[in-house]
Amino acid sequence: MHVAIGLGSNLGDRIANLRMAVTQMEERFGALVAVSSLYRSDPIGGPDQPDYLNAVVVIDTDRPLDEVLTECLAIERLADRTRTERWGPRTLDLDVLAAAAPPVATERLTVPHPQAAERRFVLEPLVEVWPEAAVGPGSARARLEQVQDQAVDRLAESEWAKGLSKGGWWVAAQVVLLIWVIGGAAQLPSSPSLVGRWLGAAVVLGGLGFGLWAGRSLGKNLTPYPQPMAGAQLVAQGPYRLVRHPIYGGIIVALAGLALFQGSTMTLIGAVEMGALFWLKSSFEERRLLIAHPMYRQYQHAVPKRLIPFLV
Hints:
Blueprint: E1 2-9, H1 14-29, E2 34-35, E3 38-41, E4 52-60, H2 65-78, E5 93-99, E6 104-105, E7 110-111, H3 120-129, E8 134-135, E9 138-139, H4 140-144, E10 152-156, H5 168-187, H6 194-218, H7 246-262, H8 265-292, H9 296-302
Antiparallel strand pairs: 1-4, 1-5, 2-4, 3-4, 3-10, 6-7, 8-9
Helix pairs in contact: 1-2, 5-8, 6-7, 7-8
């Protein structure tokens, strides 16, 4: 029979905890039927605590559901799960959500899970891998329509369970476009006014200075890839108090200054194209940062501008 198991973590290395759980389920139950995408959700109840990473795994087993629960509890213990506070933070939480079997209601286990039908962070990944799973009075798909007001973010496809790419294609696209814009600008005739030259030079220097300041603020956390380095710290000082991706913003401003220095519409178009690329790259990067840093959502709220201070 198919059994859906919900995974959650908001303490320690959250994605490592979830990957360990997936590996353990493969070892204990055999090949998995499906692994959902990875989601972020706000904590429900309890004390102030970091955001959760959530997913759903579907297994196929002939073992009784009570044995499935026993295995899940054993996997939780491997992650040093402690149960000291109701709704409190946890390194790993595994719940038996639904099964292709008659309902179960004992002191130890209730299936379908009694809260599954009310929680979007359960239903989103569950619908992705088993939309017709029975959760309470209806299917997961039907119940999902009724909880759309709850905040949930999809961060990565099912590849997360095996590993996430660094996003090298974004770096390649960035380098190619930057060479194209600067190389094209060098070949264009220049006929701006003296004021335009001085103003453009000031903007170029300001953009480069802002980007360099951001790079120095990152220190050992600096990487060209949108995937944060292992063990990287969340930086929220210096220019990162103003925008979340100041290096990208500095490059955009510098290119706009170059267009002004040259009096070139084509270079300005290139700066806009670079801005669009950085917007897309930073969107991808934000999802990876939400995976890497439990408090990144709060940082997003504290620093609403993404690229250029006071603008965007």
